Amino acid sequence: MVDFSISEKDQQIFDLMKKEGLVRRKYSRYYDLHEEEIPPDEFPEAKDFPSLESVLAGRSKEEGGATAFSLFASMHRAMYGGIALRSPNRALGNSSLTAAGTDEQKKKWGNTRLAMANTEPGCGSDSKAIETTAVLDGDEWVLNGEKIFVTTGIKAEGVVIWATVDKTAGRAGIKAFVVMKGTPGLELVKKEKKLGIRASDTAAFVLKDCRIPRENLLGLDESVVKKGGGGFKGLMMTFNLTRPGVAAGGIGNTMSALEFVKEELEKEGVTVNYELGQHNRTAIQQKVIELEAELEAATLATLRAGWLGDEGKPNNLEASVSKQKGGDICRKGTQLALEILGAPGITRDYRVEQNFRDGRITDIYEGTGEIQRLVIARGILNYSAADLS
Ligand SMILES: Cc1cc2nc3c(=O)[nH]c(=O)nc-3n(C[C@H](O)[C@H](O)[C@H](O)COP(=O)(O)OP(=O)(O)OC[C@H]3O[C@@H](n4cnc5c(N)ncnc54)[C@H](O)[C@@H]3O)c2cc1C
Predict the structure, then answer these.
(1) Structural contact between residues 363 and 372, judged by C-beta atoms closer than 8 angstroms
(2) Which of 163, 216, 347, 356 could bridge 134 with an S-S bond, Cβ 3.0-4.6 Å?
(3) Nearest CA to ligand 1 atom 13
(4) Tens digits of per-residue pLDDT, 231-244?
C-alpha cells in the first residue's frame, strides 16, 4: 500500500528542518548577490541541527522509505532555506557512484563529494553524443575532452567523468571514471555566472592527457558489448535517482513563493476562502487554489517516484513525470506569484523574484522538460529511444 502520511517523529524532524531552513534563508540573498563567493558547508547558527545524512543513517526500515522521506525533507529545505544554499556532502557524482560503482568503490568514495560531468559543448540532452575519450594505457586510463556546466565542480573533491572508450560502439562505449581533484591534466577552466541558483557553483573542465588508475572506472566493466553495468545505463540510472530530488527542490522553491504571496495578501486583508464555489471566488483566490492543486499533484508524483525507488521497483517513467511536473510548476507557479504581487514582486525587497530566477533551472538540468516528455511517452507507449527521439 502507498502511504505518504507523516509520523509524529518525522514531523518533529521536518519542524527542525524548517528551523534550520529559516537560518539559511537569511544567507540566501547574500550569496545570490555575491555569486563570486562560495558559501560555507554550514552556517554557525545551523550547526546544531541534525544533517539529513545523520537522520537517514539512524532510520529503521519500519520507519518507512528513506527516499520518499528525503524528498519530503528536500521540499522543506528548499521552501524555507532556498535551493542550493546548503551544499551537501554528496553531490550528483555520488549518485553515479551509487548507480554504477562496485561495493568496494562505494566504500572507497562514499564519503567523498563527487561532481558529475556528462555535458560537453556538443553534448547536452543527447547524452550518448559524448566526445570525451578514455583510452587504456597499461594500468591507467588516459582521458581527453571538455566538460561544461558541472554542478559543485569547484567545491567537489572529485568529478565523475562520463567518457567513451569506443566511439563506434555508441551507448555501450560510454563509461564513468572517478577523477580526483589535483590529478594532472584535469584543469578547472571556468566558473559560470548565472541567472539563478547562484549559491551553487557551476564549473567547466578541460581534460588533457589526464591519467587515472585503471580501477577508477566505475563498475570495473571494461567491455563494450555487455549491456548494463557501469555504461550508459549507469548514467540513466543516475538520473532515476536524482530527478525526483531536483523536482523536490523546485516544488519547495515554488511553495516558498506561494507562502510569501499568501502572507502579503493577508496583510491586505485578502484570504483564500476554500468554501466558496468557483464562480464566487475572486480571480486571485482562484489562482492561488489552482497553484496549490498543481503543487499537490507535483508533490505526490515526486513522492511516488521516490517510493518506487525505495521499493526497488523501476521508476524511470515516474522519475521523469516528477521532474516534468516539478519543472513546470516552478516556471508557472513562481511567475504567477510575481503576477499576483504586481510591480513590487520584481524588486529585491521581496524574495519572490529570487524564487522566480532560482526555479528556472528545474526545467533545464538533468534533462529538460522536452526530454522528460520524451521519456514519459516512451515509457507509456513502450517505445525504445530508437523508436522515439
Ligand atoms: C546550472 C546548470 C547546472 C548543470 N549541472 C550539470 C552537471 O552537474 N552535470 C552535467 O553533466 N550537466 C549539467 N548541466 C547541463 C544540463 O544537464 C544541460 O544543459 C541539459 O541537459 C540540456 O542540454 P543542452 O544545454 O546542451 O541543451 P540542448 O540539448 O542543446 O537542447 C536545447 C533545446 O532543445 C531541446 N531539445 C533537445 N533535444 C530534443 C529532442 N530530442 N526533442 C525535443 N526537444 C529537444 C531542449 O529541450 C532544449 O530546449 C547543468 C546545466 C546548468 C544550466
Answers:
(1) no
(2) 163
(3) 149
(4) 677 778 878 888 99
Separation in Å, CA 348 to CA 15, 26, 200, 343, 345: 28, 14, 20, 11, 8
Using CA atoms, how far apart are residues 326 and 249, in angstroms rounded to an integer? Answer: 8
Rounded Cα gap, residues 322 and 108, in angstroms? 31
Q: How is the chain split into domains, by residue range?
A: 8-81, 92-230, 233-381
Question: What would the pLDDT profile of 24-44 be if each residue is shown by its tens digit?
Answer: 888 999 999 999 998 888 888
Average pLDDT score over residue span 173-190: 97
Distance 89 CA to ligand 1 centre (A): 25
pTM of model > 0.90:
yes
Position 59: which residue type?
Answer: R
Dihedral class, residue 245 (left if φ above 0, else alpha if ψ from -120 to 50, else beta)? alpha
* CATH superfamily placement of domain 92-230: Butyryl-CoA Dehydrogenase, subunit A, domain 2 (2.40.110.10)
State pLDDT tens for residues 302-353: 999 998 988 889 999 999 999 999 999 999 999 999 999 999 999 999 999 9
Closest Cα to atom 12 of ligand 1: 119
264 among known catalytic residues: no
CATH class of 233-381: mainly alpha
Residue of 20, 120, 146, 366 marked catalytic:
366
* C-alpha cell recorded at residue 166: 569506443
The set of protein residues with a Cβ atom below 6 angstroms from ligand 1 is 92, 116-119, 124-125, 149-151, 194, 202, 361, 364-368, 370-371, 374, 389
Please give the backbone phi and psi of residue 139, each rounded to the nearest 5 degrees, phi first. Answer: -100, 25
